[in-house]
Design brief:
single chain, alpha+beta, Cyclic Phosphodiesterase, Chain: A, five-stranded antiparallel sheet, four-stranded antiparallel sheet, 3 helices, 9 strands, binds adenosine-2'-monophosphate
């Protein structure tokens, strides 16, 4: 009997105005390929793959235990992954609280008995798939984004298309202002 499972990942999802801005800036920078529509733009913190249904409660409980603070993201870089032929935008450097959050969700997954993600964390928002390598490495104008929550998202296939559904969102605590 097949084991029931769901394809899950932790991610940051930009609000619509930021997503629109990312899409416009990427297009204006000459990104070519299958452009990701604004409503599907996200920054993956950890990809968990197929998670057996009976592990999901433990994963949500582990997620509840994560304490993370918010941070500013300045998306100014344009990059390319040759293997998956993905063009992306991302920050020039990864803010420490973002690196800590990515580590936190990976630890939560491990605590729930879900294999650790093998790729190192590289903060990026994929803007085009089956893309050509971008000709520039910088966006003409950076996009500012202050995420206020992280999410456990399901990636389902509906009629051959990837559909993303939120399972749970957790707020990022405001970082104390010095
Ligand atoms: P990326 O394409 O932005 O790099 C949901 O499927 C998200 O998880 C995708 O947007 C993808 O991020 C990431 N993902 C999908 N398959 C993956 C894999 N095999 N390994 C790592 N990350 C993956």
């Amino acid at each position: 009997m097949p084991v029931e499972s769901r394809r899950l990942f932790f991610a940051l999802w930009p609000p619509r105005d930021v997503a629109d801005e990312i899409a416009v800036r990427a297009r204006d920078s000459g990104v070519r390929g299958r452009l990701v529509p604004p409503e599907k733009l996200h920054l993956t913190l950890a990809f968990l793959g197929d998670v057996p249904a009976e592990r999901i409660d433990a994963l949500l409980a582990a997620g509840d235990g994560i304490r993370a603070v918010d941070f500013d993201l300045c998306l100014s870089r344009l990059g390319y992954f040759r293997g998956p032929r993905a063009a992306w935008v991302g920050p020039k450097t990864t803010p420490a609280p973002l690196a800590a959050l990515a580590a936190g969700v990976r630890e939560a997954a491990a605590a729930a008995g879900i294999g650790r993600e093998t790729r190192g964390f590289r903060a990026h928002v994929t803007v085009a798939r089956r893309a050509e390598p971008p000709r520039r490495v910088r966006l003409p104008e950076p996009v500012a984004w202050r995420p206020d929550a992280f999410e456990l998202t399901e990636s389902a296939r509906v009629a051959g298309k990837a559909v993303y559904r939120p399972l749970r969102r957790w707020p990022l605590a405001p970082a104390s202002v010095e």
